[in-house]
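step=encode ok
step=design start
structure_in=
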């Protein structure tokens, strides 16, 4: 066999197998999105694959897809799933301007001064963004991939966690599982706490079955931790009304470092064949 030089020779760029990327433009506002999709190599079950819709996909889609690709292998893994990442036309992990608009409701209270003193980006597009997901993205995904509509998860972090909890509290029929990491409950004078109280006070038959995982890092700003605890304590009584709840405080993690351990916990929470008990992890 001829000797090969120990040199770095160029090859095609690394890519995650079984993934693809698309461009979509929303009908409402003609906003541009990058949609990343991972489809398992497994044969789809008769009911279709469970699906996880991931916000801030530029930052976390690759990690989520590789985690599913590895951990859906036997033995002792969980079942395969389709991952749909909703991202933006950027090479950066986060698009601060676009995500601020998509993940927030209009602010009725005066916003505080930003830590760096810069003006706030445009906000208030959460309803239009949810309409894009429900009316445009989901039908496109379900047309091209075998999806189990009874096993749909929404995963969001920070402002994306705010959006995720807002959808659960106000449109609980949209997904069956919600994962909110380091949610920005401070937004708009903590309006989500009022929504949580209203849901907790409804009659028993008004709470739709769902699974909700909330997580916060122990090294985050104290108000972030306190807000997350308060919201979880508010909805905790729902655990006896068909809602599976879990709360995690990862003591060694900050606002960004929480993402990697949270992804693994989220996959187990969303894809376990039998529901794990609710409570605190």
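sequence_out=
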């Amino acid at each position: 066999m001829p000797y090969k030089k120990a040199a770095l020779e160029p090859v095609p760029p690394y890519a995650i197998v079984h993934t693809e990327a698309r461009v979509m433009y929303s009908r409402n506002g003609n906003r541009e999105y990058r949609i990343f999709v991972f489809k398992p190599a497994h044969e789809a079950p008769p009911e279709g694959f469970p699906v996880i819709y991931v916000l801030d996909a530029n930052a976390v889609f690759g990690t989520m897809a590789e985690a599913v690709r590895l951990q859906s292998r036997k033995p002792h893994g969980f079942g395969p799933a389709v991952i749909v990442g909703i991202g933006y036309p950027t090479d950066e992990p986060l698009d601060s301007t676009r995500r601020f608009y998509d993940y927030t409701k209009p602010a009725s209270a005066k916003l505080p001064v930003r830590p760096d003193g810069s003006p706030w980006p445009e906000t208030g597009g959460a309803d239009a963004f949810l309409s894009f997901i429900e009316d445009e993205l989901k039908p496109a995904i379900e047309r091209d991939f075998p999806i189990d509509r009874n096993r749909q998860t929404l995963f969001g972090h920070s402002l994306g966690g705010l959006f995720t909890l807002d959808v659960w509290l106000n449109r609980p029929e949209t997904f069956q599982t919600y994962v909110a990491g380091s949610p920005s409950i401070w937004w708009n004078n903590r309006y989500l706490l009022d929504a949580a109280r209203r849901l907790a006070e409804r009659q028993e038959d008004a709470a739709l079955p769902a699974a909700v995982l909330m997580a916060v890092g122990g090294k985050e700003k104290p108000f972030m931790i306190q807000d997350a605890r308060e919201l979880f304590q508010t909805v905790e009584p729902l655990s006896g009304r068909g809602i599976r709840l879990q709360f995690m405080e990862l003591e060694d993690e900050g606002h960004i470092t929480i993402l990697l351990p949270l992804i693994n916990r989220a996959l187990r929470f969303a894809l376990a064949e039998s529901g794990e008990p609710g409570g605190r992890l």
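step=design ok
step=annotate ok -> The first helix runs from residue 57 to 71.
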